[in-house]
Amino acid sequence: MEGISLSIQELLDDQEYGLGLTLLAGKRGLTNRVVSSRIQKPGLALTGYTEHFHPDRVQVLGNTEISYLSKLDSHLAAECVRTVCSFPISCFIITTGLVPPPFLLETVEAAGIPTLNTSLKSSTFISLLTKFLEERLLPTTHLHGVLVEVLGVGILLTGKSGIGKSECALDLIIRGHRLVADDMVYIKKKMPATLVGQSEKSIQHLMEIRGLGIINIKDLYGVSSIREKKIVDMLLELKEWDPDQEYDRLGLDDHSTTILGVDIPHIIIPVRPGRNLGSIIEVAARNFLLKGMGYHSALDFQNRLLARLEVRPLGNEVE
Q1: Is 79 strand, coil or helix?
Q2: How far apart are CA 151 and CA 144, in angstroms?
Q3: Does 315 map to a domain?
Q4: 236 and 273 share one domain
Q5: 13, 37, 118, 217: least CB-packed within 10 angstroms?
Q6: 162 with 285, same domain?
């Protein structure tokens, strides 16, 4: 996740996850960045033990921490808070609607550490915040192409502009398959090694068909024709047919491409008049599912051919 971060202001502005945050103090620190989805409760740090303190994480102060500070001598408690605030802390969040002691707010204000409040209980809030941060801090990229779901398989169609990606996707939608994204596919890496694609919000459910213009797939074909997100299982690259190039005719060699460090199957489909790309892509999806079940048509054909030539199948030793 190196290089990926979000500001405390973005955390404060959240409406989707129901974090319910309000700002108590430290407004000038709202530009501080969060780089980790892990949360810390700084109870030990408040006692003076800071060896394993991680200031880059969101610091959650719950009933235990606030009660501890309230029961300490005010001068000692203020000194403990000043010690913790000497670190470059991204932010404090106080849960359960607790009222922090005045010296805490004074210290964070002076240090420029944003301190937020939520009415949620610590356990509930930490669960929601972790999901929020994991989603927002995932490695991401944008690819030009079309993402469709065919028989439950997420297929990313790529190729140069005008090759027919959108027209091919439209044919698949008419056949009963679903559109995820057209033109620009927004891809996130979910740990440990899964790619999830979706559309940019501004063009969600829309498709550009040359000669027709922009069409709304959801309005034309109903909600069953679209999907918000889909795991990217394979990449199909559409290329203009080149008579001088030798194309794979057996399918023995499985090729892959790497996106955000994740390898996915990569198949090149040559395009020329007379080829029914919709049917070819449906077959590619079915073949992918078969391979997932351990059946490889090309290898099975090769082994049967070798057996017919009285040669033992691949993978077995020759006597």
Answers
A1: helix
A2: 23
A3: no
A4: yes
A5: 13
A6: yes
d(CA 128, CA 93): 13
Q: Is 279 annotated as a binding residue?
A: no
In a domain, 13, yes or no: yes
Q: Which residues pair with 194 in a beta bridge?
A: 190
From the candidates 57, 136, 165, 188, give the one annotated as an active-site residue: 165
Domain containing residue 211: 140-291
Where among 76, 103, 136 does a domain terminate?
136
Q: Which position among 38, 144, 275, 304 bears the catalytic label?
A: 144
* 64 and 86 housed in the same domain: yes
Distance set, CA 147 to CA 80, 159, 219, 228 (Å): 53, 12, 18, 11
**319 residues of the chain, pLDDT tens digit each:** 345 888 999 999 988 888 999 999 999 999 999 988 899 999 999 988 888 899 989 999 999 999 999 888 888 989 999 999 999 999 999 999 999 999 999 999 999 999 999 999 999 999 999 999 988 888 889 999 999 999 999 999 999 988 889 999 999 999 999 999 999 999 998 878 899 999 988 899 999 998 889 999 999 999 999 999 999 999 999 999 888 777 777 767 788 999 998 999 999 999 888 788 999 999 999 999 988 888 777 777 777 877 888 655 555 554 4
Given the residues 249, 253, 272, 308, the one annotated as active site: 249
165 labeled binding residue: yes
Indicate if 183 belongs to the active site: yes
- What is d(CA 215, CA 226) in angstroms, rounded to the nearest whole number? 13
Q: Which CATH number do you get for residue 126?
A: 3.40.1390.20
Asked if residue 161 belongs to a known ligand binding site, the reply is: yes
Q: Is 123 annotated as a binding residue?
A: no
- 159 annotated binding-site participant: yes
**27 is known to lie in a ligand binding site:** no
Same domain for 146 and 286? yes
Asked if 177 is an active-site residue, the reply is no
Per annotation, catalytic residue among 14, 56, 171, 183: 183
